[in-house]
């Protein structure tokens, strides 16, 4: 594919790596490409980073046709840069697009966009372990009319943000509240799609939990309010009586690439992993009998996030003595080791630029 590149005349420099935080600093450029029914995807271009203009009737502003992805470019110890399973993100973005009636991307073109862009912005990939260049591809419906119909015009963009280590202060287990009121999505809805609307609908519960001193909510299914789904915007795993249990993908759960990678690593280490329905009653029983050994969230941002406390109704339970568990630590070490190029990539997951 042809990507027209217009370079900035006023390049910025990267702030100190320990001051990056997450998603606040952006690189010098951004990628854009337009879609129309007549022309398909066209006008692929990299331009200086800056504001974009939208028609006030643009579909995304009224009907929420928006999807996104999140992945990272990692700096290896040898100075090179690599991505982690980028094709998984591209395929998932197309599944999200299909659900939201947005146009699909050509997979090879999408990979070329990612690699061309990261190569151009290479100086923005930070060097310390745990830091990365966070990549945010996103797509939105961009018809300039208020009629409700499948999208005829869309825009695809890629922006990137150098980000600090998620665990700059060390890995501390988080406190989680089981959410009884709001639900994130329902089966048949958009739970498996990475769309902005899912986030808009779930922030209220997160805010309420934060006021009570919890960092995330544990979502229950939207139909029976009975089965565990996800924790905040991460997938969730439990080690119960020696077996790792994670909610099965029912359609309302986001199929995380970290989730998938954790399952593959665990199986390769000989652990039994069950992808099945897990009811909150079973979880509470495991907590009360002492059989819940470890609990953790998993996602690209944190890799794994140990859960140290779980609240349900007016009861609060400590998980694994409030410390990071053995399996959680092992997963963290192996996955970050592969991502930052410190551990041999026996799974062939990294994509070197
Ligand atoms: C992105 C996301 C995840 C994690 O997916 P990864 O591919 O592992 O980053 C989990 N749950 C939700 C709701 C998400 O949006």
Summarize the structure.
This protein is an alpha+beta fold and 353 residues long.
Q: How many helices does DSSP assign?
A: 7
From the alpha-carbon coordinates, what is the Rg to the nearest angstrom?
A: 21 Å
Which CATH top level class of the largest domain fits? Alpha Beta
What's the number of extended β-strand segments?
18
Query: Which whole number gives the mean pLDDT?
Result: 96
How would you explain this protein's 3D organization?
By secondary structure, this protein is α+β, with helices and mostly antiparallel strands. It has 2 domains: 4-163, Aminotransferase class 4, branched-chain amino acid transferase, N-terminal domain (D-amino Acid Aminotransferase, Chain A, domain 1, 2-Layer Sandwich), CATH 3.30.470.10; 174-339, D-amino Acid Aminotransferase, subunit A, domain 2 (D-amino Acid Aminotransferase, Chain A, domain 2). 24% of the residues lie in helices and 30% in strands. It is built from 7 helices and 18 strands. The strands form 2 sheets. Strands 1, 2, 3, 4, 5, 6, 7, 8 and 18 form a 9-stranded mixed sheet that branches. Strands 9, 10, 11, 12, 13, 14, 15, 16 and 17 form a 9-stranded mixed sheet that branches. The longest helix has 16 residues, at 196-211. The chain is globular, with a radius of gyration of 21 Å. It starts with a strand and ends with a strand. The model has no long low-confidence stretch (mean pLDDT 96). Pyridoxal-5'-phosphate (PLP) binds at residues 70, 194, 230, 233-235, 254, 256-259, 299-300. Pyridoxal-5'-phosphate binds at residues 70, 194, 230, 233-235, 254, 256-259, 299-300.
């Amino acid at each position: 594919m042809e990507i027209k590149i217009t370079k900035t005349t006023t390049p910025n420099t990267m702030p100190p790596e320990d001051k990056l935080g997450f998603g606040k600093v952006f690189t010098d450029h951004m990628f854009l490409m337009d879609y129309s029914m007549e022309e398909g995807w066209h006008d692929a271009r990299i331009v200086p980073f800056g504001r974009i203009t939208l028609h006030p009737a643009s579909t995304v502003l009224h009907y929420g046709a928006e999807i996104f992805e999140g992945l990272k470019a990692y700096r290896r110890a040898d100075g090179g840069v690599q991505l982690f399973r980028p094709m998984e993100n591209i395929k998932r973005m197309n599944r999200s697009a299909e659900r939201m009636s947005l146009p699909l991307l050509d997979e090879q073109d999408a990979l070329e966009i990612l690699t061309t862009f990261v190569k151009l912005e290479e100086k923005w990939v930070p060097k310390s372990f745990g830091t990365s260049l966070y990549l945010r591809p996103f797509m939105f419906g961009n018809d300039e009319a208020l009629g409700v119909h499948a999208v005829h015009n869309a825009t695809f963009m890629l922006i990137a943000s150098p980000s600090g280590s998620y665990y700059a202060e060390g890995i501390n287990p988080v406190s989680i509240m089981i959410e009884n009121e709001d639900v994130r999505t329902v089966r048949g809805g958009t739970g498996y799609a990475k769309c902005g609307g899912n986030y808009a609908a779930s922030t209220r519960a997160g805010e309420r939990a934060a006021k009570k001193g919890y960092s995330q909510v544990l979502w229950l299914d939207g139909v029976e309010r009975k089965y565990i789904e996800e924790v905040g915007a991460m997938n969730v795993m439990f080690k119960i009586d020696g077996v790792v249990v994670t909610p099965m993908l029912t359609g309302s759960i986001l199929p995380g690439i970290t989730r998938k990678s954790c399952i593959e690593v665990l199986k390769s280490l000989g652990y039994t992993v069950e992808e099945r329905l897990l009811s909150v009653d079973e979880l509470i029983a495991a907590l009360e009998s002492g059989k819940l050994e470890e609990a953790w969230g998993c996602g690209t941002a944190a890799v794994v996030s140990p859960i140290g406390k779980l609240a349900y109704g007016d009861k609060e339970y400590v998980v694994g003595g409030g410390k990071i568990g053995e399996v959680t630590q092992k997963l963290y070490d192996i996955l970050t080791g592969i991502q930052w190029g410190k551990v041999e990539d026996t799974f062939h997951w990294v994509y070197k630029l």
